[in-house]
Amino acid sequence: MKLANVSWGWTPIPEDMPHGDSLIRIADQIRELGFEGVDYLGTPEALDEFFTEEACRALGDHSRSIGLEPNVFVFQDASWNDACSEKREDSVRHFEKAAQAAKWIGCRIVSTLVPMPCGATPWKFNPAAPAIKQGYHMPADYCYQKDWDTLMDSYRKCLAIAKRYGLRMSVECFPIP
Questions:
Q1: With pLDDT > 70 as the criterion, what percentage of the chain qualifies?
Q2: Nearest C-alpha neighbor of 31 from the set 1, 64, 71, 80
Q3: What Å distances lie between residue 176 and 33, 62, 69, 125, 165, CA to CA?
Q4: In 126-169, which ranges are continuous DSSP H helix?
Q5: pLDDT for the residue numbered 121
Q6: pTM for this one?
């Protein structure tokens, strides 16, 4: 068993890193704390601009050279069940970029997050409460079965992509807006 950490504990996404920082520097800090595994995170923007083959291979090679095993590449997107088919297809296209980045880095798993129900708007029950609880206002015409079918169609496409790259796919069960 290896104890792992996530790179976004240091910076939320690569494109938001402070000047002079890097995922390689962050990997060093994670390893210095005694962790033996690491997960990396990418958004559509990061996959288009940051996670090149050269950058991914360098990150994976460096991680392994310091005894830090790359575990999961998490693709952060929320359009899997969007009513717009173009947005869903863009998510699938970026998921494929995430799978490629995961493969280049040496991760075994590519992951994504659960979207909110299609058309829902979030609201907080009591923002002053010690544990923030979030709910959703659902549109009047919301159809659970249609939303579920749309989501599963997107995830099936992603699973096929993950398999083509020799990766496992996981879904992290906390919704993102």
A1: 88
A2: 64
A3: 29, 31, 27, 17, 26
A4: 144-164
A5: 86
A6: 0.89
Token pair 């520097």 is found at 25
Q: Give the type of residue at 40.
A: Y
**Backbone φ and ψ of 127, nearest 5°:** -60, -20
Which tokens hold the place of 79? 């359009």
Burial class (CB in 10 A: 0-12, 13-18, 19+), 162: buried
Work out the burial of residue 72: count CB atoms within 10 Å of its CB; fewer than 13 is exposed, 13-18 middle, 19 or more buried. buried
Six token digits for residue 43: 């958004």
Phi/psi of residue 42, nearest 5 degrees: -140, 145
The two tokens of residue 47 are: 């996959």
Handedness of CA 68, 47, 103, 74 (dihedral sign): positive
Mean pLDDT of 114-139: 78
Residue with tokens 């990997």: 27
Most confident of 11-20, 78-87, 166-175: 78-87
3 state DSSP class of 147: helix
Contacts of 153 (CB under 8 A, 6+ apart): none
